[in-house]
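1st attempt posting a full record on here, be nice pls
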Amino acid sequence: MKNRLDDYRRLADDLDRRKLGRRAFLKRAAALGISPMVAEATIRVVGMSVPGLDWGAAQAQENGRLVVASWGGEFGDAQRVAHFQPFMQETGIDVVLASQSPELALLEAQVTSGNVEWDLANNSLVGAATVASKGLLQPIDYASMDQSIVNGVDPFVRSEFACGIYYWSTCLGWSTLDFPASGPQPKTWGDFWDTTKFTGPRGLFSMDFEPPPLEIPLLATGVAPADIYPMNIDQAFGVLTDFRDEIQTWLGWTADGMQLMMQGELSLATIGNGNYASAVKDGLPVGMSFDQGMLYYDAWVIPKGAPNAALANRFIEFTMRPEVQAHFSSLYAVGAVTPAANDLLTPQQRAVSLSNPDLKSRMFEVNVGWWGDLDTATGKTNLEKVYDRWAEWIL
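the predicted structure (as C-alpha coordinates):
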Protein backbone atom coordinates (compact mmCIF):
# COMPACT_ATOMS: atom_id res chain seq x y z
CA MET A 1 0.00 0.00 0.00
CA LYS A 2 2.78 2.42 0.90
CA ASN A 3 4.52 1.96 -2.44
CA ARG A 4 1.27 2.43 -4.31
CA LEU A 5 0.48 5.66 -2.46
CA ASP A 6 4.03 6.92 -2.95
CA ASP A 7 3.67 6.31 -6.68
CA TYR A 8 0.32 8.09 -6.67
CA ARG A 9 1.74 11.11 -4.88
CA ARG A 10 4.47 11.34 -7.50
CA LEU A 11 1.75 11.26 -10.16
CA ALA A 12 -0.07 14.08 -8.36
CA ASP A 13 3.14 16.08 -8.20
CA ASP A 14 3.63 15.63 -11.95
CA LEU A 15 0.04 16.75 -12.52
CA ASP A 16 0.59 19.79 -10.31
CA ARG A 17 3.74 20.73 -12.25
CA ARG A 18 1.87 20.22 -15.53
CA LYS A 19 4.17 17.37 -16.54
CA LEU A 20 1.07 15.22 -17.04
CA GLY A 21 -2.20 16.01 -18.74
CA ARG A 22 -5.58 14.95 -17.39
CA ARG A 23 -5.97 11.92 -19.65
CA ALA A 24 -2.49 10.56 -18.91
CA PHE A 25 -2.97 11.13 -15.19
CA LEU A 26 -6.28 9.24 -15.13
CA LYS A 27 -4.78 6.36 -17.12
CA ARG A 28 -1.78 5.99 -14.80
CA ALA A 29 -3.95 6.39 -11.69
CA ALA A 30 -6.18 3.56 -12.91
CA ALA A 31 -3.10 1.37 -13.41
CA LEU A 32 -2.28 1.92 -9.72
CA GLY A 33 -5.77 0.83 -8.69
CA ILE A 34 -6.97 4.33 -7.79
CA SER A 35 -10.73 4.71 -8.27
CA PRO A 36 -11.95 7.16 -10.95
CA MET A 37 -13.83 9.16 -8.26
CA VAL A 38 -10.66 9.75 -6.26
CA ALA A 39 -8.57 10.46 -9.36
CA GLU A 40 -11.08 13.06 -10.58
CA ALA A 41 -11.15 14.59 -7.10
CA THR A 42 -7.34 14.78 -7.13
CA ILE A 43 -7.48 16.79 -10.35
CA ARG A 44 -9.82 19.21 -8.59
CA VAL A 45 -7.60 19.37 -5.50
CA VAL A 46 -4.34 19.89 -7.37
CA GLY A 47 -5.77 22.24 -9.92
CA MET A 48 -8.02 24.28 -7.69
CA SER A 49 -7.65 28.00 -7.18
CA VAL A 50 -9.17 28.81 -3.81
CA PRO A 51 -9.54 32.43 -2.73
CA GLY A 52 -8.20 32.79 0.78
CA LEU A 53 -6.28 29.52 0.62
CA ASP A 54 -3.34 30.65 -1.46
CA TRP A 55 -1.11 30.81 1.60
CA GLY A 56 0.90 27.71 2.44
CA ALA A 57 0.60 25.43 5.46
CA ALA A 58 3.56 27.08 7.20
CA GLN A 59 2.01 30.52 6.88
CA ALA A 60 -1.33 29.15 8.07
CA GLN A 61 0.35 27.78 11.19
CA GLU A 62 2.18 31.06 11.82
CA ASN A 63 -0.98 33.12 11.46
CA GLY A 64 -3.09 30.75 13.54
CA ARG A 65 -5.54 29.89 10.78
CA LEU A 66 -7.81 26.89 10.75
CA VAL A 67 -9.17 25.66 7.40
CA VAL A 68 -12.56 23.96 7.82
CA ALA A 69 -14.50 22.11 5.13
CA SER A 70 -18.21 22.30 5.93
CA TRP A 71 -21.59 23.17 4.43
CA GLY A 72 -23.41 26.35 3.43
CA GLY A 73 -26.96 27.64 3.40
CA GLU A 74 -28.90 28.20 6.62
CA PHE A 75 -26.79 25.51 8.25
CA GLY A 76 -23.60 27.35 7.34
CA ASP A 77 -25.03 30.59 8.70
CA ALA A 78 -25.80 28.91 12.03
CA GLN A 79 -22.36 27.33 12.20
CA ARG A 80 -20.67 30.64 11.51
CA VAL A 81 -22.60 32.37 14.30
CA ALA A 82 -22.41 29.58 16.91
CA HIS A 83 -19.02 28.00 16.12
CA PHE A 84 -16.69 30.07 13.98
CA GLN A 85 -17.18 33.64 15.20
CA PRO A 86 -17.16 32.91 18.97
CA PHE A 87 -14.08 30.68 18.60
CA MET A 88 -12.23 33.41 16.71
CA GLN A 89 -13.22 36.01 19.31
CA GLU A 90 -12.07 33.83 22.20
CA THR A 91 -8.80 32.54 20.73
CA GLY A 92 -7.72 35.01 18.04
CA ILE A 93 -7.42 32.07 15.62
CA ASP A 94 -8.89 32.73 12.18
CA VAL A 95 -11.34 30.13 10.90
CA VAL A 96 -11.39 29.95 7.10
CA LEU A 97 -14.19 28.06 5.39
CA ALA A 98 -12.86 26.01 2.47
CA SER A 99 -14.60 26.75 -0.81
CA GLN A 100 -15.14 23.02 -1.42
CA SER A 101 -17.79 21.00 0.39
CA PRO A 102 -16.32 18.17 2.50
CA GLU A 103 -16.82 15.40 -0.05
CA LEU A 104 -15.23 12.08 0.85
CA ALA A 105 -13.51 11.80 -2.53
CA LEU A 106 -11.91 15.22 -2.07
CA LEU A 107 -10.65 14.30 1.39
CA GLU A 108 -9.23 11.02 0.07
CA ALA A 109 -7.62 12.79 -2.87
CA GLN A 110 -5.92 15.32 -0.60
CA VAL A 111 -4.50 12.65 1.70
CA THR A 112 -3.40 10.20 -0.99
CA SER A 113 -1.79 12.95 -3.07
CA GLY A 114 -0.03 14.42 -0.04
CA ASN A 115 -1.61 17.82 -0.75
CA VAL A 116 -3.72 18.30 2.38
CA GLU A 117 -5.38 21.73 2.55
CA TRP A 118 -8.07 21.05 5.15
CA ASP A 119 -7.41 20.97 8.88
CA LEU A 120 -10.89 19.78 9.72
CA ALA A 121 -13.92 18.41 7.84
CA ASN A 122 -17.58 17.95 8.72
CA ASN A 123 -18.68 14.49 7.54
CA SER A 124 -21.65 12.28 8.28
CA LEU A 125 -21.18 9.38 10.68
CA VAL A 126 -21.15 7.02 7.69
CA GLY A 127 -18.65 9.09 5.74
CA ALA A 128 -16.41 9.47 8.79
CA ALA A 129 -16.40 5.72 9.37
CA THR A 130 -15.52 5.09 5.73
CA VAL A 131 -12.49 7.40 5.55
CA ALA A 132 -11.35 6.21 8.99
CA SER A 133 -11.39 2.56 7.94
CA LYS A 134 -9.29 3.46 4.89
CA GLY A 135 -6.61 5.05 7.07
CA LEU A 136 -7.23 8.61 5.85
CA LEU A 137 -7.68 10.26 9.25
CA GLN A 138 -5.56 10.99 12.27
CA PRO A 139 -6.90 10.33 15.75
CA ILE A 140 -8.78 12.97 17.69
CA ASP A 141 -6.53 14.09 20.55
CA TYR A 142 -9.06 13.85 23.37
CA ALA A 143 -6.23 13.79 25.93
CA SER A 144 -5.36 17.40 25.06
CA MET A 145 -8.90 18.56 25.86
CA ASP A 146 -10.76 19.49 29.03
CA GLN A 147 -11.93 16.07 30.24
CA SER A 148 -15.07 17.49 31.85
CA ILE A 149 -16.14 18.63 28.38
CA VAL A 150 -15.16 15.37 26.67
CA ASN A 151 -16.93 13.24 29.27
CA GLY A 152 -20.08 15.30 28.84
CA VAL A 153 -20.47 14.21 25.22
CA ASP A 154 -22.69 11.24 24.34
CA PRO A 155 -20.25 8.27 24.09
CA PHE A 156 -22.20 7.04 21.04
CA VAL A 157 -20.79 9.88 18.92
CA ARG A 158 -17.19 9.71 20.18
CA SER A 159 -14.70 7.47 18.45
CA GLU A 160 -10.96 7.36 17.88
CA PHE A 161 -11.11 9.20 14.56
CA ALA A 162 -14.34 11.22 14.75
CA CYS A 163 -16.20 13.35 17.25
CA GLY A 164 -19.90 14.05 16.81
CA ILE A 165 -21.10 17.61 16.37
CA TYR A 166 -24.90 17.25 16.23
CA TYR A 167 -27.69 14.77 15.55
CA TRP A 168 -29.79 15.15 12.42
CA SER A 169 -32.34 13.03 10.60
CA THR A 170 -33.85 12.10 7.27
CA CYS A 171 -37.61 11.89 7.70
CA LEU A 172 -40.79 11.49 5.68
CA GLY A 173 -42.27 14.82 4.65
CA TRP A 174 -45.44 15.72 2.81
CA SER A 175 -47.33 18.69 1.46
CA THR A 176 -50.28 19.54 3.71
CA LEU A 177 -52.03 20.91 0.62
CA ASP A 178 -52.11 17.33 -0.68
CA PHE A 179 -52.54 15.66 2.71
CA PRO A 180 -54.32 18.07 5.10
CA ALA A 181 -54.81 17.36 8.79
CA SER A 182 -58.51 16.71 8.13
CA GLY A 183 -57.61 13.45 6.39
CA PRO A 184 -55.06 10.63 6.64
CA GLN A 185 -51.44 11.70 6.59
CA PRO A 186 -48.42 9.46 5.93
CA LYS A 187 -46.37 8.56 9.00
CA THR A 188 -44.04 5.66 8.14
CA TRP A 189 -41.94 4.48 5.21
CA GLY A 190 -44.64 1.86 4.61
CA ASP A 191 -47.02 4.77 3.97
CA PHE A 192 -44.50 6.30 1.57
CA TRP A 193 -44.55 3.01 -0.35
CA ASP A 194 -48.38 2.85 -0.27
CA THR A 195 -49.30 4.51 -3.56
CA THR A 196 -52.98 3.54 -3.22
CA LYS A 197 -53.69 5.21 0.11
CA PHE A 198 -51.31 8.12 -0.46
CA THR A 199 -51.30 9.13 -4.09
CA GLY A 200 -49.04 11.73 -5.62
CA PRO A 201 -45.53 12.21 -7.00
CA ARG A 202 -42.70 11.15 -4.72
CA GLY A 203 -39.05 12.05 -4.18
CA LEU A 204 -36.44 9.88 -2.43
CA PHE A 205 -32.83 10.64 -1.59
CA SER A 206 -30.58 8.95 -4.14
CA MET A 207 -28.23 6.22 -2.98
CA ASP A 208 -25.13 8.26 -3.79
CA PHE A 209 -26.13 10.72 -1.07
CA GLU A 210 -24.01 10.87 2.07
CA PRO A 211 -25.27 8.91 3.83
CA PRO A 212 -27.50 6.93 1.44
CA PRO A 213 -30.78 5.88 3.14
CA LEU A 214 -30.75 2.31 1.84
CA GLU A 215 -32.48 1.17 5.03
CA ILE A 216 -35.70 2.94 3.94
CA PRO A 217 -36.85 0.46 1.27
CA LEU A 218 -36.31 -2.43 3.69
CA LEU A 219 -38.22 -0.73 6.51
CA ALA A 220 -40.96 0.21 4.04
CA THR A 221 -41.50 -3.41 3.05
CA GLY A 222 -41.71 -4.80 6.56
CA VAL A 223 -38.18 -5.71 7.60
CA ALA A 224 -38.00 -5.25 11.36
CA PRO A 225 -35.51 -2.59 12.53
CA ALA A 226 -33.64 -5.19 14.55
CA ASP A 227 -33.14 -7.27 11.38
CA ILE A 228 -31.82 -4.53 9.06
CA TYR A 229 -28.13 -5.24 9.76
CA PRO A 230 -26.08 -6.74 8.35
CA MET A 231 -27.89 -5.19 5.40
CA ASN A 232 -28.67 -7.26 2.34
CA ILE A 233 -27.68 -4.87 -0.44
CA ASP A 234 -29.18 -7.07 -3.16
CA GLN A 235 -32.51 -7.22 -1.33
CA ALA A 236 -32.62 -3.46 -0.80
CA PHE A 237 -31.91 -2.69 -4.45
CA GLY A 238 -34.49 -5.31 -5.45
CA VAL A 239 -37.11 -3.36 -3.49
CA LEU A 240 -35.97 -0.14 -5.19
CA THR A 241 -36.27 -1.82 -8.59
CA ASP A 242 -39.88 -2.82 -7.90
CA PHE A 243 -40.73 0.73 -6.76
CA ARG A 244 -38.60 2.60 -9.27
CA ASP A 245 -41.46 3.84 -11.47
CA GLU A 246 -43.14 5.45 -8.45
CA ILE A 247 -40.20 7.78 -7.77
CA GLN A 248 -40.58 10.94 -9.82
CA THR A 249 -37.40 12.61 -8.54
CA TRP A 250 -34.20 11.30 -7.00
CA LEU A 251 -33.23 13.89 -4.44
CA GLY A 252 -29.76 14.94 -3.33
CA TRP A 253 -27.25 17.70 -3.86
CA THR A 254 -29.10 19.21 -6.83
CA ALA A 255 -32.75 18.40 -6.03
CA ASP A 256 -34.31 19.55 -2.77
CA GLY A 257 -37.44 17.71 -1.62
CA MET A 258 -38.77 20.58 0.45
CA GLN A 259 -38.47 23.05 -2.39
CA LEU A 260 -40.08 20.68 -4.89
CA MET A 261 -43.02 20.07 -2.55
CA MET A 262 -43.53 23.81 -2.08
CA GLN A 263 -43.45 24.22 -5.88
CA GLY A 264 -46.20 21.61 -6.20
CA GLU A 265 -43.96 19.14 -8.04
CA LEU A 266 -43.93 16.52 -5.25
CA SER A 267 -46.50 15.38 -2.69
CA LEU A 268 -44.17 13.28 -0.53
CA ALA A 269 -40.39 13.44 -0.10
CA THR A 270 -37.50 12.60 2.14
CA ILE A 271 -36.46 15.78 3.97
CA GLY A 272 -34.07 16.81 6.71
CA ASN A 273 -35.49 17.78 10.07
CA GLY A 274 -33.58 21.07 9.98
CA ASN A 275 -35.19 22.08 6.69
CA TYR A 276 -38.58 21.13 8.11
CA ALA A 277 -38.13 23.33 11.16
CA SER A 278 -37.18 26.27 8.95
CA ALA A 279 -40.23 25.68 6.73
CA VAL A 280 -42.58 25.59 9.72
CA LYS A 281 -41.06 28.81 11.03
CA ASP A 282 -41.79 30.39 7.64
CA GLY A 283 -45.39 29.14 7.72
CA LEU A 284 -45.04 26.79 4.74
CA PRO A 285 -47.62 24.03 4.19
CA VAL A 286 -45.52 21.00 5.09
CA GLY A 287 -45.79 18.10 7.49
CA MET A 288 -43.18 15.63 8.73
CA SER A 289 -43.11 12.43 10.74
CA PHE A 290 -40.29 11.43 13.09
CA ASP A 291 -41.52 7.81 13.05
CA GLN A 292 -38.75 5.61 11.59
CA GLY A 293 -36.73 8.70 10.73
CA MET A 294 -33.09 7.91 9.97
CA LEU A 295 -31.14 9.15 13.01
CA TYR A 296 -27.66 10.29 12.04
CA TYR A 297 -24.98 12.50 13.43
CA ASP A 298 -22.33 14.58 11.72
CA ALA A 299 -18.78 14.50 13.04
CA TRP A 300 -15.54 16.42 12.94
CA VAL A 301 -12.66 14.53 11.34
CA ILE A 302 -9.02 15.54 10.90
CA PRO A 303 -7.44 14.44 7.59
CA LYS A 304 -4.14 12.62 7.97
CA GLY A 305 -1.40 15.18 7.39
CA ALA A 306 -3.58 18.18 8.29
CA PRO A 307 -1.27 21.22 8.64
CA ASN A 308 -2.85 22.47 11.87
CA ALA A 309 -4.13 19.42 13.74
CA ALA A 310 -3.50 20.98 17.17
CA LEU A 311 -5.75 23.92 16.30
CA ALA A 312 -8.35 21.49 14.95
CA ASN A 313 -8.48 19.64 18.27
CA ARG A 314 -8.80 22.92 20.12
CA PHE A 315 -11.74 23.88 17.92
CA ILE A 316 -13.42 20.48 18.39
CA GLU A 317 -13.27 20.91 22.17
CA PHE A 318 -14.86 24.36 21.83
CA THR A 319 -17.82 23.02 19.79
CA MET A 320 -18.50 20.31 22.40
CA ARG A 321 -19.17 22.81 25.19
CA PRO A 322 -22.81 22.63 26.37
CA GLU A 323 -23.43 26.35 25.83
CA VAL A 324 -22.01 26.18 22.28
CA GLN A 325 -24.07 23.08 21.51
CA ALA A 326 -27.19 24.81 22.81
CA HIS A 327 -26.47 27.96 20.80
CA PHE A 328 -26.10 26.00 17.57
CA SER A 329 -29.25 23.92 18.28
CA SER A 330 -31.22 27.11 18.91
CA LEU A 331 -30.21 28.47 15.51
CA TYR A 332 -30.61 25.27 13.47
CA ALA A 333 -33.00 22.51 14.55
CA VAL A 334 -30.68 19.57 15.11
CA GLY A 335 -29.86 17.67 18.29
CA ALA A 336 -27.08 18.45 20.74
CA VAL A 337 -24.60 15.62 21.33
CA THR A 338 -23.90 17.02 24.79
CA PRO A 339 -26.95 16.14 26.94
CA ALA A 340 -26.32 19.06 29.31
CA ALA A 341 -27.06 21.41 26.41
CA ASN A 342 -30.74 20.45 26.54
CA ASP A 343 -31.11 22.20 29.89
CA LEU A 344 -30.10 25.43 28.17
CA LEU A 345 -32.84 25.21 25.50
CA THR A 346 -36.36 26.57 25.75
CA PRO A 347 -39.23 24.06 26.09
CA GLN A 348 -40.18 24.78 22.48
CA GLN A 349 -36.64 24.07 21.29
CA ARG A 350 -36.38 20.88 23.35
CA ALA A 351 -39.62 19.61 21.84
CA VAL A 352 -38.06 19.41 18.35
CA SER A 353 -34.47 18.62 19.37
CA LEU A 354 -33.25 15.25 18.17
CA SER A 355 -31.55 14.72 21.52
CA ASN A 356 -35.04 14.62 23.05
CA PRO A 357 -35.40 11.02 24.33
CA ASP A 358 -39.06 10.86 23.27
CA LEU A 359 -38.16 11.72 19.68
CA LYS A 360 -35.07 9.49 19.58
CA SER A 361 -37.15 6.49 20.69
CA ARG A 362 -39.34 6.86 17.60
CA MET A 363 -36.44 6.93 15.17
CA PHE A 364 -34.14 4.38 13.54
CA GLU A 365 -30.55 4.51 14.77
CA VAL A 366 -28.23 3.96 11.79
CA ASN A 367 -25.45 1.40 12.32
CA VAL A 368 -22.25 3.30 11.55
CA GLY A 369 -20.16 0.17 12.03
CA TRP A 370 -21.82 -1.68 9.17
CA TRP A 371 -21.51 1.22 6.73
CA GLY A 372 -17.82 1.73 7.50
CA ASP A 373 -16.91 -1.97 7.50
CA LEU A 374 -13.99 -2.53 5.12
CA ASP A 375 -13.90 -5.58 2.86
CA THR A 376 -10.20 -6.43 2.75
CA ALA A 377 -10.67 -8.48 -0.42
CA THR A 378 -11.96 -5.51 -2.42
CA GLY A 379 -10.53 -2.64 -0.37
CA LYS A 380 -14.01 -1.09 -0.26
CA THR A 381 -16.36 -0.23 2.56
CA ASN A 382 -20.06 -1.02 2.46
CA LEU A 383 -20.70 2.65 1.70
CA GLU A 384 -18.47 2.43 -1.39
CA LYS A 385 -20.13 -0.81 -2.46
CA VAL A 386 -23.54 0.88 -2.30
CA TYR A 387 -22.21 3.84 -4.29
CA ASP A 388 -20.85 1.47 -6.95
CA ARG A 389 -24.12 -0.47 -7.08
CA TRP A 390 -26.11 2.74 -7.42
CA ALA A 391 -23.94 3.97 -10.29
CA GLU A 392 -24.84 0.80 -12.22
CA TRP A 393 -28.47 0.65 -11.12
CA ILE A 394 -29.42 4.22 -12.02
CA LEU A 395 -28.27 3.93 -15.65
